[in-house]
Amino acid sequence: MKRQDIANLLIGLVVLAAAIALPFYVDSRYVIGQVTLGLFYAIVASQWNLLFGFSGVFSLAQMALFGFGGYATAMLCFYFGISVWIAMPLAGIATVLFSLVIGAACLRLTGAYTALLTLAVAQVMYLLIVTDTDCFVMIGTQCRQLTGGAVGFARFGDLGTRAMFKAKFLVADYALVVALFTATMLFTWAIIRSPIGLAFRALRDNPGCAMARGISRFQMQLLVFGLSSFFTGLAGGLYAAHFNAIGPGVLSFSTLFFIIAMVVVGGIGRLWGPLVGAIVLIAADEAMREIGEFRSLGLGIIIAAVMVLMPNGLIGLCESIFDRLRRLRTRSSTMTAEVSGDTPA
Amino acid sequence: MEIIGPVLVSGITTGALYALATLGLSLVWGSLGMLNMAHGTLLTIGGYAAFTAASQLGLPVPLAVLAAVIVGGLIGALIFVLVAYPLSRRSPETFETTIMIATFGVALTLENTVLRLYGGQPLGQPLSVPGAISLGAFVLPWQNLIIIVSAIALMGATALFLTRTKMGRAIRATAQNPDAAKLMGVPVAQVYLQVLILSGMLAGVCGVLVSSITQLSPSLGADPMLKAFIMCVVAGLGNLPGAIITSFGLAIVEALVQFLAGARWGFPALLAIVILVLIRRPGGLFGRVDVRRL
What residues contact residue B16 under an 8 Å CB cut-off, 6+ apart? Predict the structure, then answer.
Protein backbone atom coordinates (compact mmCIF):
# COMPACT_ATOMS: atom_id res chain seq x y z
CA MET A 1 0.00 0.00 0.00
CA LYS A 2 1.18 3.43 -0.88
CA ARG A 3 1.24 6.34 1.53
CA GLN A 4 -1.67 7.98 -0.22
CA ASP A 5 -3.82 4.87 0.11
CA ILE A 6 -3.11 4.68 3.83
CA ALA A 7 -4.00 8.35 4.19
CA ASN A 8 -7.27 7.86 2.30
CA LEU A 9 -8.11 4.80 4.36
CA LEU A 10 -7.46 6.68 7.60
CA ILE A 11 -9.54 9.66 6.49
CA GLY A 12 -12.29 7.25 5.48
CA LEU A 13 -12.28 5.55 8.86
CA VAL A 14 -12.37 8.90 10.69
CA VAL A 15 -15.28 10.08 8.53
CA LEU A 16 -17.15 6.82 9.09
CA ALA A 17 -16.54 6.98 12.84
CA ALA A 18 -17.79 10.56 12.95
CA ALA A 19 -20.86 9.59 10.93
CA ILE A 20 -21.63 6.70 13.28
CA ALA A 21 -21.04 8.81 16.39
CA LEU A 22 -23.27 11.67 15.23
CA PRO A 23 -26.71 10.26 16.20
CA PHE A 24 -25.38 9.35 19.67
CA TYR A 25 -24.39 12.94 20.40
CA VAL A 26 -26.97 14.88 18.43
CA ASP A 27 -30.59 14.50 19.33
CA SER A 28 -32.10 17.12 17.04
CA ARG A 29 -34.25 15.61 14.30
CA TYR A 30 -33.60 18.69 12.21
CA VAL A 31 -29.82 18.25 12.29
CA ILE A 32 -30.04 14.54 11.46
CA GLY A 33 -32.38 15.35 8.58
CA GLN A 34 -30.06 18.00 7.18
CA VAL A 35 -27.01 15.74 7.49
CA THR A 36 -28.92 12.99 5.68
CA LEU A 37 -29.76 15.43 2.88
CA GLY A 38 -26.15 16.58 2.79
CA LEU A 39 -24.98 12.97 2.39
CA PHE A 40 -27.35 12.47 -0.54
CA TYR A 41 -25.79 15.52 -2.17
CA ALA A 42 -22.29 14.30 -1.30
CA ILE A 43 -22.96 10.97 -3.03
CA VAL A 44 -24.09 12.66 -6.24
CA ALA A 45 -21.26 15.19 -6.00
CA SER A 46 -18.67 12.42 -5.57
CA GLN A 47 -19.94 10.74 -8.73
CA TRP A 48 -19.84 14.00 -10.62
CA ASN A 49 -16.31 14.41 -9.34
CA LEU A 50 -15.44 10.95 -10.67
CA LEU A 51 -16.84 12.02 -14.01
CA PHE A 52 -15.42 15.54 -14.24
CA GLY A 53 -12.61 15.72 -11.70
CA PHE A 54 -11.00 12.39 -12.54
CA SER A 55 -12.07 11.80 -16.13
CA GLY A 56 -12.54 15.29 -17.55
CA VAL A 57 -16.11 14.75 -18.81
CA PHE A 58 -18.06 17.94 -18.16
CA SER A 59 -21.58 16.59 -17.90
CA LEU A 60 -24.53 18.64 -16.69
CA ALA A 61 -26.90 15.67 -16.58
CA GLN A 62 -25.95 14.44 -13.11
CA MET A 63 -29.14 15.58 -11.41
CA ALA A 64 -31.12 14.26 -14.37
CA LEU A 65 -29.65 10.82 -13.63
CA PHE A 66 -30.38 11.25 -9.92
CA GLY A 67 -33.93 12.24 -10.80
CA PHE A 68 -34.21 9.32 -13.20
CA GLY A 69 -33.28 6.93 -10.38
CA GLY A 70 -35.81 8.54 -8.09
CA TYR A 71 -38.57 8.56 -10.68
CA ALA A 72 -37.81 4.97 -11.70
CA THR A 73 -38.14 3.85 -8.07
CA ALA A 74 -41.34 5.83 -7.55
CA MET A 75 -42.93 4.66 -10.78
CA LEU A 76 -42.01 1.00 -10.23
CA CYS A 77 -43.61 1.14 -6.80
CA PHE A 78 -46.57 3.21 -7.92
CA TYR A 79 -47.54 1.30 -11.05
CA PHE A 80 -46.42 -2.23 -10.20
CA GLY A 81 -46.85 -2.14 -6.44
CA ILE A 82 -43.48 -3.69 -5.68
CA SER A 83 -41.42 -2.98 -2.58
CA VAL A 84 -38.98 -0.05 -2.67
CA TRP A 85 -36.23 -2.49 -1.70
CA ILE A 86 -36.63 -4.27 -5.04
CA ALA A 87 -37.36 -1.08 -6.94
CA MET A 88 -34.17 0.72 -5.84
CA PRO A 89 -31.59 -1.68 -7.34
CA LEU A 90 -33.73 -1.97 -10.48
CA ALA A 91 -33.76 1.82 -10.67
CA GLY A 92 -29.97 1.86 -10.28
CA ILE A 93 -29.59 -0.50 -13.23
CA ALA A 94 -32.17 1.42 -15.27
CA THR A 95 -30.22 4.62 -14.61
CA VAL A 96 -27.05 3.03 -15.96
CA LEU A 97 -28.87 1.99 -19.15
CA PHE A 98 -30.38 5.45 -19.49
CA SER A 99 -27.00 7.08 -18.96
CA LEU A 100 -25.47 4.89 -21.66
CA VAL A 101 -28.10 6.14 -24.11
CA ILE A 102 -27.44 9.77 -23.18
CA GLY A 103 -23.71 9.16 -23.21
CA ALA A 104 -23.80 7.55 -26.65
CA ALA A 105 -25.49 10.71 -27.96
CA CYS A 106 -23.47 13.33 -26.06
CA LEU A 107 -19.98 11.90 -25.62
CA ARG A 108 -19.05 11.91 -29.28
CA LEU A 109 -18.26 15.53 -28.59
CA THR A 110 -15.92 17.02 -26.03
CA GLY A 111 -15.66 19.89 -23.59
CA ALA A 112 -18.27 22.61 -23.81
CA TYR A 113 -20.23 20.73 -26.48
CA THR A 114 -20.80 17.81 -24.10
CA ALA A 115 -21.81 20.22 -21.36
CA LEU A 116 -24.38 21.95 -23.53
CA LEU A 117 -25.90 18.74 -24.89
CA THR A 118 -26.21 17.09 -21.48
CA LEU A 119 -27.72 20.30 -20.12
CA ALA A 120 -30.25 20.28 -22.95
CA VAL A 121 -31.12 16.63 -22.27
CA ALA A 122 -31.69 17.41 -18.59
CA GLN A 123 -33.80 20.45 -19.44
CA VAL A 124 -35.94 18.51 -21.93
CA MET A 125 -36.56 15.86 -19.28
CA TYR A 126 -37.63 18.55 -16.82
CA LEU A 127 -39.91 20.29 -19.31
CA LEU A 128 -41.55 17.07 -20.47
CA ILE A 129 -42.33 16.08 -16.90
CA VAL A 130 -43.58 19.51 -15.81
CA THR A 131 -45.79 20.03 -18.86
CA ASP A 132 -47.24 16.50 -18.74
CA THR A 133 -51.00 16.95 -18.41
CA ASP A 134 -52.43 13.92 -20.22
CA CYS A 135 -54.26 11.55 -17.92
CA PHE A 136 -52.61 8.18 -17.70
CA VAL A 137 -54.63 6.53 -14.94
CA MET A 138 -57.50 7.74 -12.82
CA ILE A 139 -57.05 7.41 -9.07
CA GLY A 140 -60.55 7.85 -7.72
CA THR A 141 -61.71 11.07 -9.33
CA GLN A 142 -58.18 12.39 -9.67
CA CYS A 143 -56.28 12.41 -12.91
CA ARG A 144 -52.79 10.99 -12.73
CA GLN A 145 -50.12 11.68 -15.36
CA LEU A 146 -47.66 9.01 -16.44
CA THR A 147 -44.72 11.02 -15.11
CA GLY A 148 -46.60 12.55 -12.20
CA GLY A 149 -46.65 15.96 -13.90
CA ALA A 150 -45.67 19.06 -11.99
CA VAL A 151 -46.61 17.43 -8.67
CA GLY A 152 -44.58 14.25 -8.90
CA PHE A 153 -45.19 11.11 -6.90
CA ALA A 154 -45.83 10.73 -3.20
CA ARG A 155 -46.76 7.92 -0.82
CA PHE A 156 -45.78 5.05 -3.07
CA GLY A 157 -44.22 2.97 -0.28
CA ASP A 158 -41.38 3.60 2.16
CA LEU A 159 -38.33 1.80 3.47
CA GLY A 160 -40.22 0.12 6.30
CA THR A 161 -38.11 1.94 8.87
CA ARG A 162 -41.11 3.87 10.18
CA ALA A 163 -42.89 0.65 11.15
CA MET A 164 -39.77 -0.97 12.55
CA PHE A 165 -38.13 1.86 14.49
CA LYS A 166 -41.13 4.10 15.21
CA ALA A 167 -39.90 7.52 16.32
CA LYS A 168 -36.26 6.62 15.65
CA PHE A 169 -36.87 6.01 11.94
CA LEU A 170 -34.93 9.12 10.91
CA VAL A 171 -31.78 7.67 12.46
CA ALA A 172 -32.40 4.37 10.67
CA ASP A 173 -32.75 6.18 7.35
CA TYR A 174 -29.62 8.14 8.20
CA ALA A 175 -27.76 4.86 8.76
CA LEU A 176 -28.89 3.61 5.35
CA VAL A 177 -27.62 6.78 3.66
CA VAL A 178 -24.31 6.50 5.53
CA ALA A 179 -24.02 2.92 4.28
CA LEU A 180 -24.72 4.01 0.71
CA PHE A 181 -22.22 6.85 1.05
CA THR A 182 -19.55 4.43 2.31
CA ALA A 183 -20.21 2.07 -0.58
CA THR A 184 -20.01 4.97 -3.02
CA MET A 185 -16.69 6.17 -1.67
CA LEU A 186 -15.22 2.64 -1.71
CA PHE A 187 -16.44 2.23 -5.28
CA THR A 188 -14.98 5.59 -6.36
CA TRP A 189 -11.68 4.85 -4.63
CA ALA A 190 -11.44 1.39 -6.23
CA ILE A 191 -12.03 2.86 -9.68
CA ILE A 192 -9.51 5.64 -9.26
CA ARG A 193 -6.83 3.18 -8.14
CA SER A 194 -7.52 0.67 -10.92
CA PRO A 195 -5.87 0.66 -14.36
CA ILE A 196 -9.18 1.94 -15.78
CA GLY A 197 -8.91 4.91 -13.45
CA LEU A 198 -5.44 5.57 -14.82
CA ALA A 199 -6.88 5.56 -18.34
CA PHE A 200 -9.59 8.02 -17.25
CA ARG A 201 -7.02 10.37 -15.81
CA ALA A 202 -4.78 10.05 -18.86
CA LEU A 203 -7.70 11.11 -21.06
CA ARG A 204 -8.37 14.04 -18.77
CA ASP A 205 -4.78 15.28 -18.67
CA ASN A 206 -3.77 14.73 -22.28
CA PRO A 207 -6.43 13.25 -24.56
CA GLY A 208 -4.18 13.28 -27.60
CA CYS A 209 -1.38 11.37 -25.94
CA ALA A 210 -3.78 8.91 -24.31
CA MET A 211 -5.50 8.18 -27.62
CA ALA A 212 -2.15 7.71 -29.32
CA ARG A 213 -1.43 5.10 -26.66
CA GLY A 214 -4.47 3.13 -27.79
CA ILE A 215 -7.09 4.30 -25.30
CA SER A 216 -10.43 4.88 -26.99
CA ARG A 217 -11.74 8.21 -25.74
CA PHE A 218 -15.37 7.54 -26.60
CA GLN A 219 -15.47 4.06 -25.09
CA MET A 220 -13.64 5.00 -21.92
CA GLN A 221 -15.70 8.13 -21.33
CA LEU A 222 -18.90 6.20 -21.98
CA LEU A 223 -17.67 3.65 -19.45
CA VAL A 224 -17.05 6.25 -16.76
CA PHE A 225 -20.39 7.88 -17.58
CA GLY A 226 -22.15 4.56 -17.00
CA LEU A 227 -20.12 3.71 -13.89
CA SER A 228 -20.76 7.06 -12.25
CA SER A 229 -24.48 6.83 -12.93
CA PHE A 230 -25.10 3.66 -10.93
CA PHE A 231 -24.68 5.14 -7.47
CA THR A 232 -26.24 8.39 -8.66
CA GLY A 233 -29.39 6.51 -9.67
CA LEU A 234 -29.33 4.40 -6.53
CA ALA A 235 -29.01 7.54 -4.41
CA GLY A 236 -31.96 8.99 -6.31
CA GLY A 237 -33.96 5.88 -5.48
CA LEU A 238 -33.05 6.03 -1.81
CA TYR A 239 -33.85 9.76 -1.79
CA ALA A 240 -37.32 9.07 -3.20
CA ALA A 241 -37.86 6.23 -0.74
CA HIS A 242 -36.59 8.26 2.24
CA PHE A 243 -38.88 11.22 1.58
CA ASN A 244 -41.54 8.94 0.13
CA ALA A 245 -41.91 11.56 -2.58
CA ILE A 246 -40.18 12.73 -5.74
CA GLY A 247 -40.93 15.75 -7.87
CA PRO A 248 -39.44 17.61 -10.83
CA GLY A 249 -37.66 19.99 -8.43
CA VAL A 250 -34.61 17.71 -8.24
CA LEU A 251 -34.05 18.29 -11.96
CA SER A 252 -33.84 22.05 -11.60
CA PHE A 253 -30.85 24.09 -12.63
CA SER A 254 -30.14 25.32 -9.13
CA THR A 255 -29.93 21.84 -7.57
CA LEU A 256 -27.49 20.81 -10.28
CA PHE A 257 -25.26 23.76 -9.61
CA PHE A 258 -25.47 23.25 -5.87
CA ILE A 259 -23.87 19.84 -6.53
CA ILE A 260 -21.25 21.33 -8.82
CA ALA A 261 -20.53 24.05 -6.28
CA MET A 262 -19.83 21.35 -3.68
CA VAL A 263 -17.19 19.77 -5.89
CA VAL A 264 -15.69 23.15 -6.73
CA VAL A 265 -15.56 24.36 -3.15
CA GLY A 266 -14.16 21.07 -1.86
CA GLY A 267 -11.67 20.56 -4.64
CA ILE A 268 -12.09 19.22 -8.18
CA GLY A 269 -10.40 15.86 -8.70
CA ARG A 270 -9.82 15.28 -4.98
CA LEU A 271 -11.36 12.11 -3.53
CA TRP A 272 -12.67 13.88 -0.43
CA GLY A 273 -13.46 17.15 -2.19
CA PRO A 274 -17.21 16.54 -2.60
CA LEU A 275 -17.66 15.62 1.06
CA VAL A 276 -15.76 18.69 2.27
CA GLY A 277 -17.70 20.84 -0.16
CA ALA A 278 -21.03 19.35 0.93
CA ILE A 279 -20.26 20.00 4.60
CA VAL A 280 -19.05 23.57 4.00
CA LEU A 281 -21.91 24.53 1.70
CA ILE A 282 -24.65 22.99 3.85
CA ALA A 283 -23.14 24.78 6.85
CA ALA A 284 -22.97 28.04 4.88
CA ASP A 285 -26.54 27.50 3.73
CA GLU A 286 -27.66 27.02 7.34
CA ALA A 287 -25.76 30.12 8.42
CA MET A 288 -27.36 32.10 5.62
CA ARG A 289 -30.80 30.93 6.71
CA GLU A 290 -30.61 33.88 9.08
CA ILE A 291 -30.56 36.25 6.16
CA GLY A 292 -33.23 34.12 4.47
CA GLU A 293 -33.87 35.79 1.18
CA PHE A 294 -30.23 36.18 0.28
CA ARG A 295 -29.35 32.48 0.31
CA SER A 296 -29.18 31.91 -3.44
CA LEU A 297 -27.44 35.24 -3.84
CA GLY A 298 -24.79 34.17 -1.34
CA LEU A 299 -24.42 30.79 -3.04
CA GLY A 300 -23.82 32.47 -6.39
CA ILE A 301 -21.15 34.72 -4.94
CA ILE A 302 -19.49 31.75 -3.21
CA ILE A 303 -19.33 29.74 -6.47
CA ALA A 304 -17.89 32.61 -8.50
CA ALA A 305 -15.46 33.72 -5.81
CA VAL A 306 -14.12 30.24 -5.05
CA MET A 307 -13.64 29.55 -8.75
CA VAL A 308 -11.65 32.74 -9.22
CA LEU A 309 -9.74 32.88 -5.93
CA MET A 310 -9.00 29.22 -5.22
CA PRO A 311 -9.66 27.07 -8.30
CA ASN A 312 -8.44 23.90 -6.55
CA GLY A 313 -10.93 24.27 -3.72
CA LEU A 314 -10.40 24.01 0.00
CA ILE A 315 -8.45 20.76 -0.28
CA GLY A 316 -6.24 22.26 -2.97
CA LEU A 317 -5.66 25.26 -0.71
CA CYS A 318 -4.62 22.99 2.19
CA GLU A 319 -2.32 21.08 -0.15
CA SER A 320 -0.53 24.21 -1.29
CA ILE A 321 -0.19 25.47 2.30
CA PHE A 322 1.31 22.12 3.34
CA ASP A 323 3.58 22.21 0.32
CA ARG A 324 4.83 25.64 1.18
CA LEU A 325 5.42 24.69 4.84
CA ARG A 326 7.37 21.61 3.78
CA ARG A 327 9.46 23.62 1.36
CA LEU A 328 10.13 26.24 4.02
CA ARG A 329 11.33 23.57 6.41
CA THR A 330 13.65 21.87 3.92
CA ARG A 331 14.91 25.26 2.84
CA SER A 332 15.66 26.45 6.36
CA SER A 333 17.56 23.25 7.12
CA THR A 334 19.73 23.62 4.04
CA MET A 335 19.75 27.40 4.18
CA THR A 336 22.06 29.00 1.64
CA ALA A 337 22.44 32.41 0.13
CA GLU A 338 20.46 31.95 -3.10
CA VAL A 339 17.02 31.86 -1.48
CA SER A 340 16.24 35.55 -1.74
CA GLY A 341 15.19 35.75 -5.42
CA ASP A 342 12.69 32.88 -5.12
CA THR A 343 9.00 33.81 -5.35
CA PRO A 344 6.45 31.52 -3.80
CA ALA A 345 4.41 29.61 -6.36
CA MET B 1 -52.26 25.53 -45.62
CA GLU B 2 -53.46 28.20 -43.24
CA ILE B 3 -50.83 27.26 -40.70
CA ILE B 4 -47.99 28.45 -42.94
CA GLY B 5 -48.60 32.12 -42.11
CA PRO B 6 -48.56 31.86 -38.31
CA VAL B 7 -45.71 29.34 -38.36
CA LEU B 8 -43.59 31.65 -40.48
CA VAL B 9 -44.41 34.73 -38.40
CA SER B 10 -43.69 33.05 -35.10
CA GLY B 11 -40.73 31.10 -36.49
CA ILE B 12 -39.02 34.13 -37.99
CA THR B 13 -39.67 36.27 -34.91
CA THR B 14 -38.23 33.75 -32.49
CA GLY B 15 -35.50 33.03 -35.03
CA ALA B 16 -34.51 36.68 -34.98
CA LEU B 17 -34.41 36.65 -31.18
CA TYR B 18 -32.42 33.42 -31.04
CA ALA B 19 -30.03 34.76 -33.66
CA LEU B 20 -29.43 37.89 -31.63
CA ALA B 21 -28.90 35.89 -28.42
CA THR B 22 -26.65 33.47 -30.28
CA LEU B 23 -24.63 36.30 -31.82
CA GLY B 24 -23.46 37.60 -28.45
CA LEU B 25 -22.78 34.14 -27.11
CA SER B 26 -20.94 33.00 -30.21
CA LEU B 27 -18.86 36.18 -30.36
CA VAL B 28 -17.54 35.57 -26.86
CA TRP B 29 -16.99 31.87 -27.47
CA GLY B 30 -15.21 32.49 -30.75
CA SER B 31 -12.72 34.96 -29.37
CA LEU B 32 -12.23 34.02 -25.71
CA GLY B 33 -13.13 30.33 -25.81
CA MET B 34 -15.50 31.17 -23.00
CA LEU B 35 -19.03 29.89 -22.65
CA ASN B 36 -20.85 32.63 -20.81
CA MET B 37 -23.50 31.00 -18.64
CA ALA B 38 -24.53 34.47 -17.46
CA HIS B 39 -25.58 35.50 -20.97
CA GLY B 40 -29.23 34.73 -20.26
CA THR B 41 -29.11 36.89 -17.16
CA LEU B 42 -27.69 39.74 -19.23
CA LEU B 43 -30.84 39.48 -21.36
CA THR B 44 -32.98 39.63 -18.24
CA ILE B 45 -31.12 42.64 -16.90
CA GLY B 46 -31.42 44.44 -20.24
CA GLY B 47 -35.18 43.92 -20.16
CA TYR B 48 -35.46 45.23 -16.59
CA ALA B 49 -33.17 48.19 -17.29
CA ALA B 50 -35.44 49.31 -20.12
CA PHE B 51 -38.48 48.76 -17.91
CA THR B 52 -36.99 50.92 -15.15
CA ALA B 53 -35.99 53.66 -17.55
CA ALA B 54 -39.31 53.74 -19.40
CA SER B 55 -41.96 53.22 -16.75
CA GLN B 56 -40.25 54.25 -13.52
CA LEU B 57 -38.12 57.15 -14.74
CA GLY B 58 -40.48 58.02 -17.58
CA LEU B 59 -37.80 58.28 -20.25
CA PRO B 60 -38.70 58.02 -23.96
CA VAL B 61 -38.32 54.68 -25.75
CA PRO B 62 -34.94 55.26 -27.46
CA LEU B 63 -33.39 56.30 -24.14
CA ALA B 64 -34.87 53.23 -22.44
CA VAL B 65 -33.28 50.97 -25.04
CA LEU B 66 -30.04 52.90 -24.62
CA ALA B 67 -30.24 52.24 -20.87
CA ALA B 68 -30.51 48.50 -21.56
CA VAL B 69 -27.48 48.70 -23.87
CA ILE B 70 -25.40 50.60 -21.32
CA VAL B 71 -26.30 48.36 -18.39
CA GLY B 72 -25.68 45.22 -20.50
CA GLY B 73 -22.28 46.49 -21.62
CA LEU B 74 -21.34 47.52 -18.11
CA ILE B 75 -22.12 44.10 -16.67
CA GLY B 76 -20.29 42.44 -19.55
CA ALA B 77 -17.24 44.53 -18.63
CA LEU B 78 -17.57 43.62 -14.95
CA ILE B 79 -17.74 39.91 -15.80
CA PHE B 80 -14.51 40.25 -17.73
CA VAL B 81 -12.65 42.30 -15.13
CA LEU B 82 -13.80 40.39 -12.05
CA VAL B 83 -14.14 36.83 -13.32
CA ALA B 84 -12.91 35.99 -16.81
CA TYR B 85 -9.62 37.87 -16.77
CA PRO B 86 -8.33 36.59 -13.39
CA LEU B 87 -9.45 33.04 -14.25
CA SER B 88 -7.74 33.00 -17.63
CA ARG B 89 -4.54 34.32 -16.10
CA ARG B 90 -4.57 31.83 -13.29
CA SER B 91 -5.36 28.55 -14.98
CA PRO B 92 -5.47 28.88 -18.78
CA GLU B 93 -5.53 25.11 -19.33
CA THR B 94 -8.76 24.50 -17.41
CA PHE B 95 -10.34 27.82 -18.40
CA GLU B 96 -12.96 26.24 -20.68
CA THR B 97 -14.73 24.47 -17.82
CA THR B 98 -13.91 26.69 -14.86
CA ILE B 99 -15.34 29.74 -16.60
CA MET B 100 -18.66 27.96 -17.12
CA ILE B 101 -18.96 27.25 -13.41
CA ALA B 102 -17.81 30.73 -12.42
CA THR B 103 -20.17 32.51 -14.82
CA PHE B 104 -22.98 30.33 -13.55
CA GLY B 105 -22.23 31.68 -10.10
CA VAL B 106 -22.43 35.18 -11.59
CA ALA B 107 -25.76 34.30 -13.22
CA LEU B 108 -27.17 33.03 -9.92
CA THR B 109 -26.05 36.21 -8.16
CA LEU B 110 -27.45 38.57 -10.78
CA GLU B 111 -30.73 36.70 -11.16
CA ASN B 112 -31.31 36.84 -7.42
CA THR B 113 -30.42 40.51 -7.35
CA VAL B 114 -33.13 41.12 -9.94
CA LEU B 115 -35.52 39.00 -7.91
CA ARG B 116 -34.77 41.06 -4.78
CA LEU B 117 -35.12 44.38 -6.58
CA TYR B 118 -38.22 43.75 -8.66
CA GLY B 119 -39.91 40.73 -7.09
CA GLY B 120 -40.82 37.49 -8.79
CA GLN B 121 -44.14 38.47 -10.33
CA PRO B 122 -44.13 39.01 -14.10
CA LEU B 123 -44.20 42.63 -15.25
CA GLY B 124 -45.38 44.04 -18.57
CA GLN B 125 -42.71 45.60 -20.73
CA PRO B 126 -44.06 49.11 -21.58
CA LEU B 127 -42.27 49.20 -24.91
CA SER B 128 -44.69 46.96 -26.78
CA VAL B 129 -46.67 48.25 -29.76
CA PRO B 130 -50.23 47.00 -30.34
CA GLY B 131 -51.88 46.32 -33.68
CA ALA B 132 -51.02 44.25 -36.73
CA ILE B 133 -50.78 44.34 -40.49
CA SER B 134 -53.14 41.86 -42.08
CA LEU B 135 -53.17 40.66 -45.66
CA GLY B 136 -56.10 38.28 -45.91
CA ALA B 137 -55.35 35.35 -43.61
CA PHE B 138 -51.79 36.52 -43.11
CA VAL B 139 -51.40 38.53 -39.90
CA LEU B 140 -48.16 40.18 -38.89
CA PRO B 141 -48.27 42.02 -35.55
CA TRP B 142 -46.32 45.28 -35.49
CA GLN B 143 -44.37 44.08 -32.50
CA ASN B 144 -43.07 41.06 -34.41
CA LEU B 145 -42.12 43.26 -37.35
CA ILE B 146 -40.22 45.61 -35.03
CA ILE B 147 -38.37 42.66 -33.49
CA ILE B 148 -37.43 41.17 -36.84
CA VAL B 149 -36.29 44.47 -38.32
CA SER B 150 -34.29 45.58 -35.30
CA ALA B 151 -32.65 42.18 -34.88
CA ILE B 152 -31.59 42.15 -38.52
CA ALA B 153 -30.37 45.74 -38.28
CA LEU B 154 -28.31 44.91 -35.19
CA MET B 155 -26.81 41.85 -36.85
CA GLY B 156 -25.94 43.95 -39.90
CA ALA B 157 -24.36 46.60 -37.70
CA THR B 158 -22.33 43.98 -35.84
CA ALA B 159 -21.16 42.48 -39.13
CA LEU B 160 -20.11 45.91 -40.41
CA PHE B 161 -18.36 46.64 -37.13
CA LEU B 162 -16.44 43.37 -37.27
CA THR B 163 -15.42 43.64 -40.91
CA ARG B 164 -14.97 47.37 -41.50
CA THR B 165 -13.56 48.93 -38.35
CA LYS B 166 -10.10 48.75 -36.86
CA MET B 167 -11.50 47.47 -33.61
CA GLY B 168 -13.45 44.75 -35.44
CA ARG B 169 -10.31 43.68 -37.26
CA ALA B 170 -8.46 43.44 -33.97
CA ILE B 171 -11.27 41.27 -32.59
CA ARG B 172 -11.15 38.94 -35.57
CA ALA B 173 -7.38 38.74 -35.46
CA THR B 174 -7.44 37.85 -31.78
CA ALA B 175 -10.11 35.22 -32.38
CA GLN B 176 -8.03 33.59 -35.10
CA ASN B 177 -4.75 33.55 -33.25
CA PRO B 178 -4.24 35.43 -29.99
CA ASP B 179 -0.48 34.92 -29.95
CA ALA B 180 0.05 36.23 -33.46
CA ALA B 181 -2.29 39.14 -32.71
CA LYS B 182 -0.31 39.99 -29.61
CA LEU B 183 2.94 39.92 -31.61
CA MET B 184 1.42 42.33 -34.12
CA GLY B 185 0.77 44.77 -31.32
CA VAL B 186 -2.91 44.07 -30.67
CA PRO B 187 -3.69 44.68 -26.98
CA VAL B 188 -5.37 41.27 -26.53
CA ALA B 189 -6.77 41.80 -23.04
CA GLN B 190 -8.36 45.04 -24.18
CA VAL B 191 -9.88 43.27 -27.19
CA TYR B 192 -11.39 40.64 -24.90
CA LEU B 193 -12.89 43.38 -22.78
CA GLN B 194 -14.39 44.99 -25.88
CA VAL B 195 -15.87 41.67 -26.98
CA LEU B 196 -17.57 41.13 -23.64
CA ILE B 197 -18.91 44.68 -23.61
CA LEU B 198 -20.23 44.25 -27.15
CA SER B 199 -21.83 40.92 -26.24
CA GLY B 200 -23.39 42.48 -23.14
CA MET B 201 -24.79 45.35 -25.18
CA LEU B 202 -26.31 42.97 -27.74
CA ALA B 203 -27.76 40.91 -24.90
CA GLY B 204 -29.27 44.04 -23.38
CA VAL B 205 -31.19 44.91 -26.56
CA CYS B 206 -32.10 41.28 -27.08
CA GLY B 207 -33.60 41.22 -23.59
CA VAL B 208 -35.72 44.27 -24.37
CA LEU B 209 -36.99 42.62 -27.55
CA VAL B 210 -37.70 39.27 -25.86
CA SER B 211 -39.57 40.91 -23.01
CA SER B 212 -41.62 43.01 -25.45
CA ILE B 213 -43.46 39.93 -26.74
CA THR B 214 -43.50 37.98 -23.49
CA GLN B 215 -43.28 39.44 -20.02
CA LEU B 216 -40.53 40.53 -17.69
CA SER B 217 -39.55 37.91 -15.15
CA PRO B 218 -36.25 37.14 -13.42
CA SER B 219 -35.89 33.95 -15.48
CA LEU B 220 -36.64 35.72 -18.75
CA GLY B 221 -33.28 34.99 -20.34
CA ALA B 222 -33.00 31.32 -19.40
CA ASP B 223 -34.99 29.91 -22.30
CA PRO B 224 -33.43 32.04 -25.07
CA MET B 225 -30.00 31.25 -23.64
CA LEU B 226 -30.58 27.50 -23.69
CA LYS B 227 -31.88 27.74 -27.26
CA ALA B 228 -28.93 29.94 -28.19
CA PHE B 229 -26.59 27.28 -26.80
CA ILE B 230 -28.26 24.70 -29.00
CA MET B 231 -27.97 26.94 -32.06
CA CYS B 232 -24.29 27.55 -31.32
CA VAL B 233 -23.62 23.84 -31.01
CA VAL B 234 -25.43 22.94 -34.22
CA ALA B 235 -23.72 25.70 -36.15
CA GLY B 236 -20.32 24.97 -34.66
CA LEU B 237 -19.28 27.11 -31.72
CA GLY B 238 -17.87 30.47 -32.69
CA ASN B 239 -19.22 30.55 -36.25
CA LEU B 240 -21.29 33.74 -36.53
CA PRO B 241 -22.97 33.50 -39.97
CA GLY B 242 -23.63 29.80 -39.43
CA ALA B 243 -25.19 30.52 -36.04
CA ILE B 244 -27.57 33.07 -37.56
CA ILE B 245 -28.71 30.77 -40.38
CA THR B 246 -29.18 27.90 -37.92
CA SER B 247 -31.18 30.12 -35.57
CA PHE B 248 -33.74 31.00 -38.22
CA GLY B 249 -33.91 27.45 -39.61
CA LEU B 250 -34.36 25.75 -36.26
CA ALA B 251 -36.79 28.39 -34.96
CA ILE B 252 -39.08 27.75 -37.95
CA VAL B 253 -38.85 23.99 -37.35
CA GLU B 254 -39.61 24.56 -33.66
CA ALA B 255 -42.65 26.72 -34.51
CA LEU B 256 -43.87 24.09 -36.96
CA VAL B 257 -43.57 21.29 -34.40
CA GLN B 258 -45.28 23.46 -31.78
CA PHE B 259 -48.21 24.13 -34.12
CA LEU B 260 -48.56 20.51 -35.20
CA ALA B 261 -47.80 18.54 -32.04
CA GLY B 262 -48.27 21.01 -29.19
CA ALA B 263 -45.99 23.53 -27.49
CA ARG B 264 -44.27 21.04 -25.23
CA TRP B 265 -42.71 19.08 -28.10
CA GLY B 266 -40.89 22.05 -29.66
CA PHE B 267 -37.75 21.83 -27.58
CA PRO B 268 -37.47 18.01 -27.57
CA ALA B 269 -37.74 18.09 -31.37
CA LEU B 270 -34.93 20.65 -31.52
CA LEU B 271 -32.76 18.52 -29.30
CA ALA B 272 -33.39 15.43 -31.43
CA ILE B 273 -32.35 17.35 -34.56
CA VAL B 274 -29.24 18.60 -32.80
CA ILE B 275 -28.18 15.13 -31.73
CA LEU B 276 -28.79 13.70 -35.19
CA VAL B 277 -26.79 16.51 -36.79
CA LEU B 278 -23.93 16.07 -34.35
CA ILE B 279 -23.72 12.32 -34.91
CA ARG B 280 -23.21 13.00 -38.61
CA ARG B 281 -21.08 16.12 -38.21
CA PRO B 282 -19.48 16.37 -34.75
CA GLY B 283 -18.02 19.79 -35.54
CA GLY B 284 -21.46 21.27 -36.22
CA LEU B 285 -23.07 22.12 -39.56
CA PHE B 286 -20.69 24.97 -40.34
CA GLY B 287 -17.93 24.16 -37.88
CA ARG B 288 -14.35 24.02 -38.96
CA VAL B 289 -12.59 20.77 -38.21
CA ASP B 290 -9.56 22.08 -36.44
CA VAL B 291 -6.31 20.24 -36.55
CA ARG B 292 -4.88 19.90 -33.09
CA ARG B 293 -1.17 19.77 -32.59
CA LEU B 294 -0.06 17.86 -29.56
Answer: B147, B148, B151, B152, B209, B247, B248
